Amino acid sequence: MRKHFTILLLIVTAYVAATAQKTDTLSITLENVAYPYPIKYLPLHAEGQDIRMSYMDVPAGGKANGRTVMLLHGKNFGGYYWTTTIKALRDRGFRVIVPDQVGFGKSSKPFIHYSFHQLAAWNKKLLDTLGIQKAAVLGHSMGGMLATRFALMFPEKTEKLLLENPIGFEDYRTFIPYVSTAQQYQTELKSNAASIRKYYQSSYFTVWKPEYEELVRIAAGVTNSADYPRWAQVAAMTFTMIYEQPVYYEFQNIKVPTVLFIGKEDKTIVGKALLSPDQQAVHGQYRFLGKQIASRIPGAKLVEFDACGHIPHIEIPTEFHIALTGAL
């Protein structure tokens, strides 16, 4: 009888573990992650591969003002984290375009040479395909580097450049030790829920709140996928893209109206773990970097937020969205 009970207990334990694994596992194209609006796909071709770029095309909620805003996500996110921003904009009459960049979110995860130039060109193709002549472009974190490259390449398509705590305010090559894509891949493979939560808590927010756990759930969910090595390889390739393709030296060349939105407590550094504590204290200080970069962009405006870290649109959504719609 005891033997049968032990076997039954093992079966139940295995079932619970399997169920938990299934619940916590997300595909690397986030099919089982609900986005706030319907997803569409732009077919693309790159380096002999047919791929696709997912996006949301959200019409104005009330009386349309005839203007469009395109939202470009950060490296560790996808279009899902723009939910409240989309609502704030559509309520003000804006059409909102929210792509998942190739290599991220619900888009394809191809092994290609990743470049901000190529991503910018694909975003232009998306706007052209949708018949949008010009858009205000809001980029957060890595999306800020991409938005900057987009504005430099396609000023005629850029009504305004809006940068929310972008990375790229420094040339990381000048102080971050070099790691190869293969080395970064090994680092990415070690990611799990605990390490992701610790990073988000220490790097993104001034005060951790329970609602931020959803961001961890999505980021950690893909690590349980059988296809996670592909996700990790793409993450390593885009880390190399950020490291090797700075926009730092070109801010003075921006020709479009620009507004910087800066959470002053942000201390984001790409490759921060490779630095000593003393080195970390010298770099990634957005309370200073925001002012420095704003002074280099012709006619740029700077909006700063106290007691806010890397993601103002999530940490202080009301204050951020008032500032954003005011800037537009």
Can you put this structure into words, describing what you see?
- This protein is α/β, with parallel strands linked by helices and 328 residues long.
- The protein has one domain: Rossmann fold (3-Layer(aba) Sandwich).
- 41% of the residues lie in helices and 16% in strands.
- It contains 12 helices and 8 strands.
- It has helices spanning 2-24, 83-90, 116-129, 142-153, 181-189, 193-203, 213-221, 228-244, 277-282, 286-294, 312-315, 317-327; strands spanning 40-46, 49-58, 68-72, 95-99, 135-140, 158-164, 258-263, 301-305.
- The chain has an 8-stranded mixed beta sheet, sandwiched between helices.
- α3 packs across α4, α5 (181-189) crosses α8 (228-244) and α6 (193-203) crosses α7 (213-221).
- The longest helix has 23 residues, at 2-24.
- It is globular, with a radius of gyration of 21 Å.
- Mean pLDDT is 93; it is low at 1-23.
End-to-end distance, in Å? 73 Å
Structural class: alpha/beta
CATH superfamily: Alpha/Beta hydrolase fold, catalytic domain
| Helix count, DSSP H or I runs of 4 or more residues | 12
The profile of the biggest β sheet is: 8 strands, mixed
Beta strand count: 8
Report helical residue fraction. 40-55%
At CATH level 3, the topology is Rossmann fold
Mean pLDDT over the residues? 93
Please give the order of strands in the largest beta sheet.
1-2-4-3-5-6-7-8
Just give the CATH class.
Answer: Alpha Beta
Rg, rounded, reads 21 Å
